[in-house]
């Protein structure tokens, strides 16, 4: 006895079609077009969130009773530190995707993210030093979190230097992907360093397992600045991605037909 099971033909056909729609962005030409569409929205979001964050952080948030107005550097320092780790994870993800699936656009995205991640790391270290001087009395100490954050900067530099040192682009992408994936282990070390070791660096003000230890208005200002840096980082990475695609695909027919190339 056979049982007839009805099949929703629409669902059966939609799944492969949906996958093909997303997989087409693995082609550099499709990635170039998508980046061009997303950039203006990211620039607008970065400006909007940034202005709101500055108003809240510099104008509305109260003065801290212990650190005074020096604490306001938190509205740049903490978002930059978060972004330095997040961008590295994203860079390693795209580099690993390019290594496993051999997709050129994924490797290009990893290369586009690296300079922005390095910039965020420099910004986190620099603002941390400015904050540490009045708080600790020193610009720099070999604290566990500071040292691991500095190591993150070296990983960014190493990734970019390794790719630049190898002329063969495919070999350079594979070598950079291996380094990026190995370096991911440093990200949880940065995050959990204040829990695992006795450090001068204060603990996290925002945790997923408990309520924030800072005033709500301060938290809102910090989250707004985080959203601004997030949108700005995406916009810059997409702009750099388009430049990398044009550089690597310069001989492709679709590149030669672009209005900006023909000019």
Question: Based on helices, strands and strand pairing, what is the structural class?
Answer: mainly alpha
Q: What is the total domain count?
A: 1
Largest sheet: none
Helix content: over 70%
DSSP strand tally = 0
Account of the protein in words:
The chain is mostly helical and 263 residues long. The protein is 75% helix and 0% strand. The chain has ten helices and no strands. The protein has helices at residues 9-23, 28-60, 74-101, 104-136, 144-165, 169-183, 186-196, 216-248, 253-256, 259-262. Helix 3 (74-101) packs antiparallel against helix 4.
Characterize this entry briefly.
The chain is mostly helical and 263 residues long.
Itemize the secondary structure elements and their pairings.
Blueprint: H1 9-23, H2 28-60, H3 74-101, H4 104-136, H5 144-165, H6 169-183, H7 186-196, H8 216-248, H9 253-256, H10 259-262
Keywords:
single chain; 263 residues; mainly alpha; disordered N terminus
